[in-house]
């Protein structure tokens, strides 16, 4: 968590104390609730399917009092003989949202996911947005650093059409710009 100015050794030594020290107090109850709800959900998944699921959520971390919104994705890699998480991959990246929350359980290879509602304390089934082949091409070429004009030339469309593709992508992914669209599409495995 270099965003907090910590070297890896200090992060390892802190363990879970990291959250009490570097997450704003007003968001700590959310993390406790999502931990409870996440494990409750996870324990209802058949053991042979548990490594196919991951949880994703957004929260702030503090760096000299400045709030930085991050997305945390936890994916099980190894389970104990009774199906508990023994080893997990934790990925932290910049969030594409503007506020904490967005607690979601995803199954790899499925467009369905479950979003946790902190008010009702229920998991609600949702559907991932579907990108057309054209939208995927625009995103893929954007990742490769091409401008809208370059993309238009490469896939034989006008820059105006490419702009329309991008606008549809932004609406589908609920983002504000191409950087957020790339991150959202990548994080949600839409490409």
From TrEMBL:
Cited InterPro entries: Sig_transdc_resp-reg_C-effctor, Tscrpt_reg_LuxR_C, WalR-like, WH-like_DNA-bd_sf
KW DNA-binding (keyword) present: yes
Ranges for domain HTH luxR-type: 124-189
Pfam families hit by this protein: GerE (PF00196)
Example GO molecular function: DNA binding
Protein's GO biological process: regulation of DNA-templated transcription
Keywords of the record: DNA-binding
Superkingdom classification of source: Bacteria
Protein name as catalogued: Response regulator transcription factor
